[in-house]
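Usage

Read records sequentially. Each one opens with the input sequence:
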Amino acid sequence: MDNTVTENQSTFCVDQQVVYPSQGVGIIKAIETKEFKNNKVLYYVIYLEVSDMTIMVPVEKAEDLGIRAIVPQDEAQKALDLIGEDYEPIPSDWKLRYQMNLDLLKKGSVTDIAAIVRSLYHRSKVKELPILERKLYDSALKLLEDEIAFSLQKSKEEVETMIFTRLEVK
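and closes with the structure output:
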């Protein structure tokens, strides 16, 4: 199959930056056809810088996995603004809270991820987070920093400062 056919069958293109929820920001290095169970399957070859890993995702499964393009600047700005806003109190039962936030992370929109960071950051100020929740917070924060940095074309350090400045407002 030649490259033009492959590009037309896929949502994303080579060299495009994408977000893979719970994995991080990646770049599509290639779109390849591979043989799988006697079928030709089209795959995105995605390099994830955060874990220095290259993964192959079937093009037809990409949407189900929540893979999406990096958000435009205005959406990245909205996510930053959300961090500084008031929020609804979250359940004190950490297992319920963890499941709610895990579901949000799987949905993977930048505002969902910002909401996770905001709620868990403020919760951690009240009481230390359980280990699983702490890991969830750390991954959500990293994902948020990466995507906003790519979207706004700023360094991760600048974005981290922007996030924590807004979190400290409350």
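Summary fields computed downstream for this record:
- The radius of gyration is 18 Å.
- Residues 3-69 form a domain with the Thrombin, subunit H fold (CATH 2.40.10.170).
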